[in-house]
Amino acid sequence: MKRTYIIIGIVVIVVIVAALVYYFAIPPKLERNIKVGVIDCYTGPAAMFSNEALDGFKLALDEINKEGVLGAQIEFFKRDTKFKVDIGLSMAKELVMRENVDLLVGGISSAVALAASDYCKAEKVPLIIWIAKSERITGEKGHRYVFSSGENTAMFGKAGGVALARKPFIKYWVAGDDYEYGHAIANAAWRNLKERKPEAEKIGESWWKVGEPDLVPYITAIMAAESDAVIFCTGGGSMVNVMKTAKATGLSDMVQVWIPTATDTTILRTLGPGGPEGMMGTSDYLFFHPDTPANREFVKAFQDAHGKHPGFPAFHGYITAYFIAEAFKKAGALDREKFIDALEGLKIESPIGEIEMRACDHQVVLPIFMGVTKKVPEYDFLISTDIETMTGDEVMPSCEEIMQARGK
Amino acid sequence: MEIGLDALASQLVVGLSRSMILFIVCAGLSFVLGVLRVPNVAHGSLYMIGAFSAYGIAMRLFGGSSAGFWLALILAPLVVALVSLIAERVLFCHLYEREHLMLLLFTFALMLIFGDLVKIIWGADYRSISAPAFLRGSVSIFGAPIPRYNLFLLIIGPLVAIGLWLFTNKTKMGKISRAAAVDREMVGVIGINVSWVFAGAFVIGCCLAGLGGALVAPTVSITLGMDHTIIIEAFLIVTIGGLGNMWGALVGSLIFGVTHSFGVLIWPQFAIVFPYTAVVIVLLLRPRGLLKSVW
């Protein structure tokens, strides 16, 4: 009798252990594919960046979907915001209500990103912004449902301010595109510069409308002011214009110029070998740096797929896909709240090494590469040289500062 | 900041050079407005096609050589001329009698179609071309550096103006076009094939948009959306100059370009306000434009 009890006991234990092993060792299966809604601008000048981000995203999805995520695939639905807030918001609503997407990603326009963020907060839908750079997205306006997988104006501004403070310049002129991104990065750079070098003096500012085709009058007026250095806060097509004009007028030879994304591959590739040398710039991704196997592998895969070197948008799109895949694996279910819990503090391997989605503000921790544009024989366009790397912790606002900005 | 005479002179030169690009584009728009009475919103798209064509010819066909640049200046407007000829023969020639509002909506639709065609052909990437070596860099004028390319534009602009004057005053086609601008029915009554006159006028007007696009290409990023910026300015300029009056387009361009340039020097944070303020003042004082409108 006693023996029977022992056998039954062993069987029960074995069954319980087997059940536990099955529960914990065999990953759960998702009941359907993961649906991602992409809202970005595919019309007009910003389309180049959005398309490249999507290319990077698709490249990663191709890799991820080979093995799948908990037995499911990641599929995406693309919508064009046309760089307009009202259209962006409509597209976000349409994707959530009609396509029933699990989360939204995208956004090159900070204004669209902030509007979509408000909507996602109300509807409790996760949103990952991959290009828009306003620090308000994960700073002052941040909340549980919004994440950023790219650097922001606070990070670029701090990197620029720190780098410029080491230079001997005193008199600065600040200029740029008259919109959210331009002013945000100018404020961040100037604030950080002044904190480190109180004697720095802003002798003037000029702001032109987004898409202004002729920057020569602005540049010649800046040259007349005889500043020591110029901070240009431009994005998109204005980057090419301002760099062309700075070279044509001789401004880039006359004074030191810093432009946040002057060293970005997307811009320098467009300018070709005739781009201006000696411009200080900032980027969170360079296809040749760091020269690691992971980065080389990513660059080769992107080149094979698209015939060009990846710029920062491709990198952002790529890591966004991996953050999504890893977060769903960790969450184990198609549940938006569990997905957010999983994404907070998540670390993934990326082409530039391990990166983390900071839990306190949902801002990805990325290093910033400061450099100077220069011609090199290896490429038919300028690249960033004399690279100085600032870690994410060095350039990001602290969690306390973020909470303070949010009034908590 | 103190504003010296050298800075003023420099801004004047820069403003004049920008005015030349505006004039070339606006003269084409005004010509089409005057002869065909078509408010062609797609004119900006033809300017964009001119810029993209210049890129294709200079960079893709000739690898960015100087010869490629000069050929692009000649061939890009011809590409635009071909596109506009097809559009005129297939579409516009059936619509001249329609209401202006209808034409406005039609050309708006055409603008969207051209935008998508450009995206299909050239993609969404930014494009850039370089001017020949001797037009790069700057020269010092009044103690201020002026890009050589802007000086080149200052030469091209008047040449185009002279060419247009010769065309409209010394050629049969030009005279017929002027006559059609005043009384198109009468031109038809005396046995002239008005349909082909209109086609010719439309192609010439659009060709100027293409030339403007090719000329501006080395100074800007060639990108989708460049049509939107220029078309708004172009309509303002032809309105203050006098609808359909090519010389009005010149006057309007000079006002727009120079006030903007001085605005940048005087109040850089709000420079954009200056040319639009000038437009408002002109329209308040002369609602039908500075020169005689043919509308």
What spatial order of strands do you see in the largest sheet of chain A? 7-6-8-9-10-14-15
Question: In the CATH hierarchy, what is the architecture of the largest domain in chain A at level 2?
Answer: 3-Layer(aba) Sandwich
Mean pLDDT of chain B: 90
**Fraction of helical residues of chain B:** over 70%
**SS strand fraction of chain A:** 15-25%
Shape of chain B: globular
Flag low-confidence runs of chain B. Answer: none
Figure out the total of helices of chain B. 11
Structural shape of chain A: elongated
Stretches of chain A where pLDDT is under 50 for at least 5 consecutive residues are: none
Query: Taking strands numbered 1, 2, ... along the chain, how are they ordered across the largest sheet of chain B?
Result: 1-2
The first-level CATH class of the largest domain in chain A is given as Alpha Beta
Oligomer: heterodimer
Number of helices of chain A: 15
Q: Care to describe what's here?
A:
The complex is a heterodimer of chains A (408) and B (295). With 408 residues, chain A is α/β, with parallel strands linked by helices. Chain A has two domains: 34-151 and 291-366, Response regulator (Rossmann fold, 3-Layer(aba) Sandwich); 154-283 and 368-395, Response regulator (Rossmann fold, 3-Layer(aba) Sandwich), CATH 3.40.50.2300. Chain A is built from 15 helices and 15 strands. Chain A has helices at 2-25, 47-67, 85-97, 110-123, 153-165, 180-196, 216-225, 237-249, 251-254, 265-271, 293-306, 312-331, 336-343, 392-395, 399-405; strands at 34-40, 74-80, 103-106, 127-129, 146-148, 171-177, 201-208, 229-233, 256-259, 280-283, 347-350, 353-357, 364-365, 368-374, 383-390. Chain A has a seven-stranded mixed β-sheet, sandwiched between helices. In chain A, a hairpin with a 2-residue loop joins strand 11 and strand 12 (353-357). In chain A, helix 5 packs parallel to helix 6 and helix 12 (312-331) crosses helix 13 (336-343). Chain A is elongated, with a radius of gyration of 24 Å. Chain A starts with a helix and ends with a helix. The model of chain A has no long low-confidence stretch (mean pLDDT 92). With 295 residues, chain B is an all-alpha fold. Chain B has a domain at 20-224. Chain B has helices at 5-36, 43-61, 66-90, 100-122, 148-170, 172-182, 184-189, 194-216, 226-241, 246-266, 273-285, and strands at residues 138-141, 144-147. A two-stranded antiparallel sheet of chain B has the order 1-2. In chain B, strand 1 and strand 2 form a beta hairpin. In chain B, helix 1 packs across helix 9, helix 2 (43-61) crosses helix 9 and helix 3 (66-90) packs antiparallel against helix 8 (194-216). The longest helix of chain B is centred in the N-terminal third of the chain and has 32 residues, at 5-36. The radius of gyration of chain B is 19 Å and the shape is globular. The termini of chain B are far apart. The chains are: A alpha/beta (408), B mainly alpha (295). At the A-B interface, helix 2, strand 7, helix 7, helix 8 and helix 10 of A face helix 1, strand 2, helix 5, helix 9 and helix 10 of B.
